Amino acid sequence: MELKQGKTKLNSIAYEYIKKKIIMQEMKAGTPIVESALADELGISRTPVREALNRLEEDGLVYSVPNTGTFVEHLTMKDVEEMTELRILLEVAALRHCIEGDVAAEELDQCEQTTLSICETNSQEELHEKDRALHDLIARHCPNKRLVEFLDVIKLQQDRLRYTYPFDAKRRNRMKRQHLQLIGLIRQKDFRKAAKAMEKHQSGFRGLMEKRMNP
Fold first, then answer.
1. Are 105 and 65 spatial neighbours (Cβ–Cβ below 8 Å)?
2. What residues form DSSP beta bridges with 63?
3. In this predicted model, which residue has the larger pLDDT, 86 or 163?
């Protein structure tokens, strides 16, 4: 049992390490992934690295070519459009569950305070963390676990692109305003308006990426 737990922990360490390097753009699209180099960096064998890469391929972050190797996946504007469409469908569905459920006022208060704390002195990492607060709250209150799993995969793929587009004042203020609106609509249990607000919020991501990928 201890041996199995140790193996699972190493797989998880390798997965999180490689995932972060991809999301933070330390490993660019098309970059070949060398298992032995990553194993040396982590001080572990190649087996957990290989297991982590298999999982990352399922997440759509890497792809493998037989007899050639594993590479960081490319993302096109078509990928962005498909991800945005799926994200809207899945997150609106999760939002319905959240609103129909019983979210504690204290939890919404905390999320609201996190959103209100968004400011110009926040680092990019802090802003991304605060951006996730509302979306994580919605996912926590969705009882459909498969829906949440699919949503997590889409979020993960989108995170790769979010880090390529820094928060400027306009983007920061828009996110803050839209999050506060969504929190208010969850409090009011107004799904119809909340669904429209979420669709508008997520559609903004498509617009940002169009500017980034087609300057």
1. no
2. 71
3. 86
Q: Are 38 and 49 in contact (CB under 8 A)?
A: yes
pLDDT, tens digit, 9 for 90 and up, residues 167-194: 788 889 999 999 999 999 999 999 999 9
With beta carbons less than 8 A apart as the criterion, state whether 189 and 167 touch.
Answer: no
Candidates 134, 129, 94, 97; CA nearest to 112 is 134
Tell me the residue type at 81: E
Output the pTM of the full model: 0.80
Query: If you write DSSP's letter for every residue of 164-215 in order, what string do you get?
Result: TS---HHHHHHHHHHHHHHHHHHHHT-HHHHHHHHHHHHHHHHHHHHHHH--
Q: What are the structure tokens assigned to 36, written together? A: 């032995």
Alpha helices in the chain (DSSP H): 2-23, 35-42, 46-58, 77-100, 105-116, 124-140, 145-162, 169-188, 191-213
Tell me how crowded residue 74 is: count the other CB atoms within 10 A of its CB: 10
> Token match 């996730």: residue?
132
DSSP state, 102? -
Residues 6+ apart with CB under 8 A from 138: 91, 94, 95, 98, 186
The Cα 54–Cα 60 span in angstroms is 10
Length of the chain measured in residues? 215
To the nearest 10 degrees (0 to 180), the angle between helices 191-213 and 169-188 is 160
60 backbone dihedrals φ, ψ, rounded to 5°: 85, 15
